[in-house]
Amino acid sequence: MNLNRSTVLATFAASLMVLGAASPAQAGKTTYHFGISQQRSNITFESDTDFEVILGSTHALRGKATVDVRKGKGGSVELEIPVESLRTGIDLRDEHLRSPMWLNAAKYPAISFRATTLKKGSRNRWKLKGTFTMHGVTKKLNVTAEVRSIPAATAKRAGLENGEWIRVRTEFSVKLSDFGVKIPKMAAAK
Predict the structure, then answer these.
(1) Are 22 and 30 in contact (CB under 8 A)?
(2) How much is the pLDDT for 168?
(3) pTM listed for this prediction
(4) Is 33 helix (H, G, I), strand (E, B) or coil?
(5) How many angstroms separate the CA atoms of 184 and 190, rounded?
(6) Nearest to 58, CA basis, from 80, 33, 31, 32
(7) pLDDT value at position 36?
(8) Other C-beta atoms within 10 Å of 109: how many?
(9) Distance, CA of 137 to CA of 117 (rounded, Å)
């Protein structure tokens, strides 16, 4: 991903790939549950600066999506990631990331996405309109997600529990300053 250098320190790019298991919902709708197992969720994030590229991840995710797959519209999505679970591979940097200077995990323990407008586009692409909340600030966020059904036989061979499964993948960027995250002077010098 190429980012404009003037916003590089203030941009957070995330990629979400999760598996979800289904349970019955209202007529025509299915509810997929995410975060059943941390082994089935992979959320990555990246910050690209002139001095370093910071890569991070978490496997902690809670949430669900309720949708009428046949109609290709309607439903909702609720996803939440605990800030405390974010890891960059350097313990001290992780402490800084969760500290009051950055994401303030004690005051704002979760990053969330909620969508109430879901519409199937071409192929396996779904357009979701909703809100993204980080650092206590909520902003509108529209994303396109690739959603693929996993055939029952494939799920069984992979050792997944019985039921309907989907794989969801999406990428998006957010500007940290839009969410009230102020870049400390020491970090801005980088």
Answers:
(1) yes
(2) 85
(3) 0.82
(4) strand
(5) 10
(6) 80
(7) 62
(8) 14
(9) 20
